[in-house]
Amino acid sequence: MFAAYVSHFDRDRPLSGLRLGDRPDPEVAPNWARVRVKAASVNHHDLWSLRGVGLGEGALPMILGCDGAGIDEDGNEVVLHSVIGDSGHGVGPDERRTLLTEKYQGTFAEYVTVPRWNLLPKPPELSFEEAACLPTAWLTAYRMLFSRADVRPGDSVLVQGAGGGVATAAVILGTAAGLRMLVTSRDEGKRERALALGAEGAYEPGARLPRRVDAVLETVGSATWRHSVRSLRPGGTVVISGATSGQSLPEAELNRIFFLELRVVGSTMGSKEELASLLSFCQAKGVRPLIDSTLPLDRVGEALGRIERGDVFGKIVLTP
User: How many CB atoms lie within 10 A of CB 313?
Assistant: First the structure.
């Protein structure tokens, strides 16, 4: 089958390790299912895999892609929950949880196999391309907002770095749920597009906000950390699910954190139950993922290059 995979790691030039070509059709283990991939979305995780983060040399070659939607062997339209081993279904009793492409081959291919437990029915209201956007970036945003940030309708939430998949998902989901969403971005065009999605305010990084917020969603890391902490009201929460600009903190703001009793909460992906709730939320509210562009799988290098440059607003989707 045709696939996009990692041949070797390069931290400085990650795309040099990307290869396109034939790979063996996946074998189906007991209690696993084979899915014909109809759409797969691109994530920063794919770039990290090309750099060798979370992936060992012994696992190469590794097919990229941790998001996908398609059709199983019985003809059912399905969405993949990308966390393997979280429940113990289909894996050994002592196996730690992993994302697709960390141990098991991914979705940038014609076929993928996952534990049957990891399949959810695709709502008919969602296209395969829309459904493929949900399991990583959108599920991450959903968990950050509704499971970890402890916010309710009417509360204010700041999203650092408008434009990426998690950030745009958070704005759309938060607005639909009655939250007052604020965003930052260096790009004026991205700020304007965030306002069009429903954000109440859009600001340059580090700008003073009109009021302190109840929660901050942080995926940028060192470049925005100080602003995130200083933007919170007393008792507010910063939820972290990534650090794309690096994790070193020259000024951690510890005095402010303990004096104002701020909460710092980590968040990673989401559960199968949360993905089911996200799918239901999209059905009930008419919410749809923002798709930047849809490309054929053989243009995956172009898609990853745009992710690396930050030249994206929403999700890029690949169709095998």
Answer: 23
